[in-house]
Amino acid sequence: MSDESTNHEIESTPKEFKCPIEAEMKKSYIDYAMSVIVGRALPDARDGLKPVHRRIIYSMHEMGVFSNKPHKKCARIVGDCLGKYHPHGDSAVYNSLVRMAQDFSLRYPMIEGHGNFGSVDGDSAAAMRYTECRLNKIAEEMLHDIEKDTVNFVDNFDASLKEPEVLPSKVPNLLVNGSSGIAVGMATNIPPHNLKEVCDALIHLIDNPSADTIDLMAYVPGPDFPTGGTVYGTNGIIEAYSTGKGRIKVRANTSIEEMEGGKKRIIVSEIPYQVNKSNLIENIADLVKDKKIEGITDLRDESDRDGMRIVIELRKDIMEEVVINQLYMHTQMEVTFGIINLALVNNEPKILSLKDMLSVYLDHRKEIITKRTQFDLKQALARDHILQALIKAVDAIDEAIAIIREAEDGESAKRGLMERFEIDEIQAKAILDMRLRSLNSLEIDDLKAEYDHLKIKISELESILQDEHKIFEIIKSEILEMKEQYGDVRKTQIVADTGDLDIEDLIPNEKVVIMISNDGYIKRLPLSTYKQQHRGGQGLVGMETKDEDAVVDLFVTMTHSYILFFTDRGKVYVLKAYRIPIAGRHSKGKAIVNLLPKLEEGEKIEDNLPLDNFDDDYDLIFATKRGLIKRTKLENYRNIRSNGIIAISLEDGDSLVDTKLAKHDSEIILATRDGQAGRFSVSEVRSVGRQAIGVKGMSLSEGDEVVSMAVVSPTDKLLSITENGFGKISLVSDYRKTHRGSKGVVTIKMTDRNGHVVSAKLISDDDQIIITTQQGMVIRVPASEIRTMGRSTQGVKIMNLAEGDKVTAAARLIGTEEEALVAEIETHEDLSIMDQSLPENDEE
């Protein structure tokens, strides 16, 4: 019996598992680390919030503490959040709430505080029993549409309630407010940014999914801290936006004020982000006391509600620049901000580039809009279902009332209605619930109007779900709404450091197409965007244009090349090609005036010239509409200031037509709108200074004007193109050489079929031509498909035009090398498609 008892005791003893303690410690520590990473320290890339911040905002939402409601005690909000969602201590919750209310911590505070919420001097907030708060309007945008099943809800810590896994977040919060936190083995430190700039970058990325870091930096040049200051140098910004990690120097903003007796004082108006002002002043005082910084006679803090003002008075014999540099070197008036763009993507910590952060937000908003539309559609269909029954019942109201009156109870009334009107139980119940007052004629008309309106709404919602383009248009409109309502001016300045790595070193030097519209929009595209077509094709859309706009110029250059812009006022500006943002085929690009901010009011770009370098052997040749021509040494344009320099002086009513590079032994052909062409030597044009007007290049008939200039040699060929899509190639030797100032000879016959001449270009047999029209159509044709004909012939059809369309511009491409490039790209694309078409795990 004792043996049986012993066996029973052994069997009932819990089983034990032995394992090495180091293995168990490793497993347990990894579990703990992941819990800290996912559940506490890192923000979600979609809404930019850590769990504690998300839970505070959601608790306030549930409590109804909105921006238009009275403030509530912070202790009440902390207790509610603590008891329902975040069981990690009241101080952790309150400290997080306080930070969301500090305008020196968050670029766009989420909470409006009432009471003492701390200061930039490092003062802590008052106890939560004394302070009050409510949601800011921008925080309500983070919760917008949360009631429409747009986000997943998960169990809280004790599974008694549900909380949102992420907020819908109309605001791109990860970037605009940033985040910082230390997890286990990793840390995040995302700086805040300007909302307007982030919104512009998001819209650009929607329109141009292939945009790179440099393109996006045209909209987001760098962080924008709530305390202002100056970011000194752009290398760290470029590195952080490209790789997700980088270091930037942030400096205090200073100014110099004159005092009596010739003395001066330094005024510090802004300090770097997260620097304690009181500690900074104390540090400066200690350095003066220890004589590490000399020349400071007084130091005081005059900051008030109007802004920060630290006054540093200097001796008369001290140079203020020396003291400022010493302050930057020895104090926190200059700090290094280490950017680490670490956030959770699908619950995994990832280092994100600028484009990654923007893309994650757009993907999140796409999902939110889709779910919201599905919810609205479900609601609309349910209401439509009810309205169908109500209208049936109202149209036969006497019968409906009779069925209800004759029924023994509610259940039999419901069955009677279902049989008579061929409706389901839900519809029958809606009829029974209908009030008597709904039977008047006005209410009946309202029902039918609601039904008609609902049909339109359902159609719109279904079309949104079927068209991704419409979803992104909704996202764009909401982004613009955010920008308009909450956007403000940049607080942090960004200045380049002379030791900065040239941004050019990060950009591959490759061929690109530059397109310019009549309304002054410009964009850059990879050359492979346009695939070759045969003569007579209709082309593909190259740039979205308005009815009154037109694509007027297009050329091929390298990303590292200069582009000179010549204006109607005779000035020239310079821009590197990579500074022009990449845009898709269907985008109109960016306004040139935004890329050349120094343009004077009303000044218009008339011509442009791509240029590899300022070669001393070349001259710059200008041709004007009235037939004037000017020759100036290219080296005279080597140093072009940001606000431009004088390129040519123009007479009233005249304008620039073409600008070309030429050597002294070159020849020039001027082509006119009425089909005349004059050929003469460059040597006949005397070289003059930048501000000269020029001399007569060609005598024009009344109403005629110069449309093109080509620099040629006797063995070259000339392509002439007319506005109705006709053209031809002729030998330059066919054009009788005359002297400067002659009327020239016929270059192509003017007929109703041809229309006026648009362009005359130098051409080779292996070249290709890109032609653009007023309506934004583009065609690419090999020059070999265009016949070589006599100069006085009518030419052949090159491009089929839609009714009312006209050719506006033509550009030549180097053919052989380019064809090989396009063929290589197309072959690569074909192989990619073949790879995608193979079934998974198909060993064959």
Structural summary, described in words:
It contains 20 helices and 41 strands. By secondary structure, the protein is α+β, with helices and mostly antiparallel strands. Among the domains are: 49-168, Topoisomerase II, domain 5 (Alpha-Beta Complex); 253-332, Gyrase A, domain 2, CATH 3.30.1360; 359-481, Topoisomerase, domain 3 (Orthogonal Bundle); 532-542 and 616-826, DNA gyrase/topoisomerase IV, subunit A, C-terminal (Neuraminidase), CATH 2.120.10. The strands form twelve sheets. The chain has a four-stranded mixed sheet. A four-stranded antiparallel sheet has the order 10-11-13-12, covered by helices on one side. The two termini are 70 Å apart.
Pairing-aware structural class of the strands and helices? alpha+beta
* SS summary, helix count: 20
N-to-C CA distance:
70 Å
CATH H-level name of the domain at 532-542 and 616-826... which superfamily? DNA gyrase/topoisomerase IV, subunit A, C-terminal
Tell the overall outline. flat
* Uncertain regions spanning at least 5 consecutive residues: 4-10, 529-535, 545-549, 814-844
* Name of the level-1 CATH class of the domain at 532-542 and 616-826: Mainly Beta
Report the helical percentage: 25-40%
What is the count of β-strands?
A: 41
**Average pLDDT, all residues:** 84
Within the largest sheet, what's the order of strands? 14-9-8-17
Q: How would a textbook summarize the main sheet?
A: 4 strands, mixed
CATH topology call of the domain at 532-542 and 616-826: Neuraminidase
Q: What is the architecture of the domain at 532-542 and 616-826 at the second tier of CATH?
A: 6 Propeller
Radius of gyration over alpha carbons?
36 Å
